[in-house]
Amino acid sequence: MTYIISVSRLKNRLENNRDNTVIVDVRFQLTDSEAGRKQYIKDHLPGAVYLDLEKDLSSKAEKHGGKHPLPDMTTFARKVGNIGIDHNTTVVIYDQANEMFAARLWWLLQCLGHEKAYVLDGGYEEWLRQENPVTDQMPVLEPKRFRPILRDEQTANIDEVKEKLENDTAIVIDSRERERYLGNIEPLYHKAGHIPGAKNYFWKDVLNKKGSWKKDEVLREHFSAIPKDKEVIVSCGSGISACPNILALKMAGYDNVKLYPGSFSDWISYEENKIEKKEE
């Protein structure tokens, strides 16, 4: 099953069935938390609403739990309804290009039981490249009542990660770039390296050389070393860039896939946890 929608398909959908489609802009920059909202205010896809990574798609960071903890799901479900989404709504999410933030919202909607969510291939830049219009007009929202169907089995906490690594009952993926995985660089956190036992699958490797999402059959080959009958727990730095890998694993036919929301930033918040720097 694909969770990616092309610009042409979105354009066709809007021309024929706009009332049942909500477009969500999630552009964001980790180094400038206001940049995405400013981009949205300047211009966006017609009818698009904005959700902020830190204000809407995460909760406040504390001592443990990672840099971008999951939002309170009851509050988040209410926000989803307030922007016009229910279970009959098709949701199309876009980033600046094919970034990691659209997949975070896609995954959160999956956790609420919403199946009709798609990531726009190429995002805002591809929409513009195909000479489609943008606007600075704010949409008129029509709130709906969204009834969440919570899927707690979509996440794994730190205790579960430890247990399953120790018992070899799950494969843990680290979605960060190789140099961070190996601990050669670490621009964000006070410790470098990775969770012992984690395998490195850089999230950008689910994209082709042109920056578009790879097709299902190519993704199956990409993840072919991972048995489909084994649980896969996906991590990254703080539960954001893991989400494109989760989406790609689902497209490749993996069903038992979980997010470790706190990821490496949660792992290193416990001084007793060991860190590895070699390839695994």
TrEMBL record:
Matches recorded under PROSITE patterns: RHODANESE_1 (PS00380), RHODANESE_3 (PS50206)
What is the superkingdom listed in this entry's lineage? Bacteria
SMART domains from the UniProt entry: RHOD (SM00450)
Asked if the Swiss-Prot or TrEMBL record annotates the protein with the keyword Hydrolase, the reply is no
Q: Which CDD domains match?
A: TST_Repeat_1, TST_Repeat_2
Instruction: Name the Pfam families on file.
Output: Rhodanese
Name one molecular function that GO assigns to this entry: thiosulfate-cyanide sulfurtransferase activity
Q: Which protein is depicted?
A: 3-mercaptopyruvate sulfurtransferase
Write down the species. Oceanobacillus picturae
Q: What lineage does UniProt assign to this protein's organism?
A: Bacteria, Bacillati, Bacillota, Bacilli, Bacillales
